[in-house]
Sequence to fold (449 residues):
Amino acid sequence: MPSVFIKTYGCQMNVRDSEQVARDLASRGYDLVEREEGADVVLLNTCSVRDMAEQKAIGKMKTLAGRKKRHQHQVIGFLGCMAQSRGSAILDDLPGVDLVVGTQKFHEVGRHVDTLFRQRREKTEPARIVDIAEETGSQNTIRDHLLAPRQVSAFVSIMQGCNMHCTFCIVPSTRGAERSRPIAEIVAEVESLVQQGVKEVTLLGQIVNLYGRHEFPVAAGRSPFTQLLHAVCAVPGIERVRFTSPHPIGFKDDLVACFRDLPNLCEHVHLPLQSGSDRILKAMHRAYTREGYLRLVEKLRAAHPGIAFTTDVIVGFPGETEDDFRQTCELVREVAFDNAFVFRYSPRHDTPAATMEGQLSEALKMERNQVLLRLLDEIAERRVKELLGREDQILVEGESRTNPDRFQGRTRTNRLVLIDANERWRGELLPVHLTESTGFTWYAEPVLV
Fold:
């Protein structure tokens, strides 16, 4: 059977979607390979959140199209958010593309690839397929896994879409409206993963803590998402549960209490900030204030004093003044985030922010980006001094992505930790001593008992 290479850009949901596509293709007999060179099928699962991600995907596809002149049998395709937003225009811009599949049609990729290869075998006029239609129930199609040997951590998609319409964000138009899967189906998926050796799951959604608010009722004072957390944490054998990415407005008291009451819910929250200025937050349509955000952080720390916070911040949003940026820096310093993803504002087509007055220069965005990164480095240096020499626990995932002589794992607070490779530790919950750190990557030695 033909070989397939899939390259994924963007968020964890894209990673999970690519896994579903790979699982379907493998079940049809395709050979999954780790290199694009020589592959019969090359699929790019794309991201539209920032311009840089789109440009990378376009550059890669142009390279592939150039190679295709020497390999006419090859199938190349665009999947995901960029495919959804651009549709058939991709075929005009990139003549070598055979397949364009949107965010609600990942489950159809295998069938479409079969069709394209059948046309090549039959030597009929090759069609170019565009499938970006909405599909009722598409949120229920991302449910199958293709696990590596002794894989202990997995993503579980619980919903699709977003109704928040932040003025900078293209996701509502690429992913559609919020749609959630039934709790029983998600629990059954987690149970199956545990039976295959998985010890940790991360629940995924565009606004994950707004799960089920349109489909399922509140019960005993618990939102649908809180009900789901209790149900997943009750699955026998599940050691750790995480979720991403939430919205601050979705943290009601019942969800905050989960960090106190559910022992296997990891004490880490990725809590997107975007800006520390109320004026900019209002322009972004973020629906919370600086004060409200800080109160939420206090509530979560009261529920679990050891909780870790990571965040997203946008610098250079249209109209952002020096004072707005100063307020962001002050809030970042006050919360003392464990890590942050800092992004320079990138105009996205068909979003309100793209046409707002006060667009900032790239030079100013870069300057503010660097200032904030230096602040985060200072916070990280202080945290290193606090934590070095302490004992912690990691779930050993396997080989480091950059060094096969080391294994990597994560603490419950989501710190990445590297240890010397030893097969007996693979897949284990391992106590370690933290011995070194670059600020965001940690090195450790096992605590031998």
